[in-house]
Amino acid sequence: MAHVTIETGSNVLRMNTSIHVIYPLESQIRPSSTLYLLHGAGDNASTWQRLTTIEQYAQRHNCTVIMPEANRSYYTDMAYGLDYFTFITEELPYLCSKLLQLNVEPEHTYVAGLSMGGYGALKCALTYPERYAKAVSLSGVTDMQRRLRDPNMPQGMVREMQAVFGMDLLVKPEQDLYALAAKRMEAGSAIPSILCCCGSEDPFIEMNRAFAAYMNAAPSSGFHFHYVEDSGTHDWVFWEKHLRTAFDFLFNNKKLTERGNAM
Known about the structure:
Blueprint: E1 2-10, E2 15-23, E3 33-38, H1 47-51, H2 54-60, E4 63-68, H3 84-99, E5 109-114, H4 116-127, E6 134-138, H5 144-148, H6 155-165, H7 177-187, E7 193-199, H8 205-217, E8 225-230, H9 236-251, H10 253-258
Parallel strand pairs: 3-4, 3-5, 5-6, 6-7, 7-8
Antiparallel strand pairs: 1-2, 2-4
């Protein structure tokens, strides 16, 4: 395996940025798939590599893992800031395809993330369903409007959210996972298969249960939605454990069902 850190200028962000990449070298053929793996609000592009066994999974499945830097942007084109959603969905794939020997076929392209990154992964998949085969959210923010209305949110975080979503903290349809999913379903559009995992003691558990209920109640649109709830909270113990669940889902659906975690 190779761990490559790319320092590059971004025209979209108008600054230099970091991209961490895990690239399998052992195979005699090019990597068979590409996973965009998004970090949480308190992390950065290096955190997945430092705190989990992601490299072992990438090697096992001959998968290139691309971990971009997004700061605390919520993977959004910010109201008062930078266009991180455009960077993640447009410029990042272009830059990586120029620099790396990627498998860029949509049927072998995945997006995943935790917490803020879980929201980002689902938003990518529901905004551009034709670009991804599957998406995974671990402990993700699945109801952004509910998150912004949290009465216990620290004042400093309120200011951060205002920079992202505007002073009135209103979520636009293109930023709302429910609205994006409904739009795709109403249009009869194909939707990538989705997995959401959340710990039963996680502060985001209720919104994850509600999102799972909504997606499972939706009319069949030719996609598969899986929800896994397990003991645990919003921490790396849970995310490391369910990194395996995520890769089972991405590369072997039968394994996920056999373990009996799907709900």
